[in-house]
Amino acid sequence: MPRANSETILAFDVGLKRTGVAVGQTLTQTANPITFLAAKKGQLDWSALDALLKQWQPSRCIVGDPKTSNPHLNKLIRRLVHHLNTRKISVVRVDEHLTSASANAELNNRTLTTEKKIELRDQVAACLILESYFSEFGSTTP
């Protein structure tokens, strides 16, 4: 159970097929991979997202912003931010340039099957996004 002065934060590495999710605590400023959300035809599994929000009850969410020109990915990111905002959750967008490549490099150093690396890549990228947020802003909201 988190301490009273610690906030729970969820981070998302948004992708057109999978969105990695990580959880962190402002007290320890650590991030841990928890799952991924499948996407079909440019839509996240919104009920699975709502279940995560209910389970973790984050005070804010960090959404990776790849600064891409891909209109489909940008639309999905906007939909995610809107979905979180309608649930009265504060959202911070963080530059996530190259987090998937960094996640791949980190996972390549582990003795895991290719399937397991693929499963974990987006979750590890979400951890990197959250760690980047902690590095830049600490436990405060920008």
Q: How would you characterize the overall build of this protein?
A:
The chain is of the alpha/beta class and 142 residues long. The protein has a single domain, classed as 2-Layer Sandwich (Nucleotidyltransferase, domain 5), CATH 3.30.420. Helices cover 43% and strands 27% of the residues. The protein contains 4 helices and 6 strands. It has helices spanning 46-56, 71-86, 99-108, 114-137; strands at 8-13, 18-25, 30-40, 43-44, 60-65, 90-95. It has a 6-stranded mixed β-sheet, with helices on both faces. A hairpin with a 4-residue loop joins strand 1 and strand 2. Helix 3 crosses helix 4. The longest helix is centred in the C-terminal third of the chain and has 24 residues, at 114-137. The chain is globular, with a radius of gyration of 14 Å. The mean pLDDT is 85.
CA-based gyration radius: 14 Å
Report the CATH C-level class: Alpha Beta
The helix content is 40-55%
Q: What's the tally of helices?
A: 4
Order of helices and strands: EEEEHEHEHH
CATH topology: Nucleotidyltransferase, domain 5
Number of strands: 6
Flag low-confidence runs. none
Widest β-sheet, arrangement of strands:
4-3-2-1-5-6
Sheet with most strands: 6 strands, mixed
Task: Count up the domains.
Answer: 1
From the 3D coordinates, which CATH architecture would you assign? 2-Layer Sandwich
Termini gap: 26 Å
CATH superfamily annotation: YqgF/RNase H-like domain
Silhouette: globular
How confident overall, as mean pLDDT? 85
Q: DSSP strand (E) fraction?
A: 25-35%
Structural class: alpha/beta
